[in-house]
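Objective 1b. Sequence-to-structure analysis of dTDP-glucose 4,6-dehydratase.
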Amino acid sequence: MRILLTGGCGFIGSAVVRHIIGATGHTVLNVDCMTYAASPETVAEVASSDRYNFAEVDITDGPALAKLFAEFRPDAVMHLAAESHVDRSIDGPGVFIQTNVVGTYTLLEAARGYWQKLDEAARTAFRFHHISTDEVFGALELDDPPFTETTPYDPRSPYSASKAASDHLVRAWYHTYGLPTFVTNTTNNYGIWHFPEKLIPLVTINAIEGKELPVYGKGENVRDWLFVEDHAEALVKAVEVGEPGETYAIGARQPRTNLEVVKTICAVLDELKPDPAGPRERLIRFVTDRPGHDFKYEIDPTHAENALGWKAKHNFETGIRRTIQWYLDNRDWWEAIRARRYTGERLGQAKK
């Protein structure tokens, strides 16, 4: 397959790119506008492959997208490009609407224009795979059953609302125009190359440096954690066998409270790199909860596992240990990001 993938220099997107080049025979065009959260280093190990291509293009630029479709001639689209940090969406929701809603609409229209010109066999085989989040389903109470593909939408933050809107657009383009789209929703991802503003890398790096470990509220909020390389494998399986109009909820059955996550990071780091000042749990600080903080997310992945022939390989303990070791071994990467102080500058990368 020839796959046009958006957001391939981000955390999840880069894992998908590495999986495509390393474990399949597919060819990929990585379309990324290189915002503050993009890192060229995340795909450096595969960038020399003759099956890897890159274009620095914003998904809100319709003419540029149309040109990419015409030149690359993809068999499928994997749409991962998105603004995804909840705290940033609370502080400045506009960019989330622009990228996640307007960008998805623009990409859908570019794909539809290209798809309509294909011959019948190519139109039938074409897929538009939209990657989304479980946050569109709202929040669970402690004893509620996990989200499934049929859970009603109930977004609570500007981020999740923008993703919900994009999901609805993708399904509308299927029902109205026949564009063969489908959606995957996933729970919280973690792993290597995770941008340092998110919970697990933030806590890991602070703990390495002996800094305070901020935890919202009492740390009782629950998330279901999926190792990013397991998710990447599931996403590629989905674009290979996914059916138009379908939804696949992808998870790992690994729920943990935020406090449990932080304490696990402390324990693993204390083992791998002991702190002479003492156990790192001493660094935990409870801070004022953020507005609209959803209590619990968890996914039942049964349908996706059966339909895709996939199951997560990592449990949380093995995945977090590998992740923490990676951050210990790759200080140069996250120290350089911290030095930029998240100024929001775009990062340049040579086109291939």
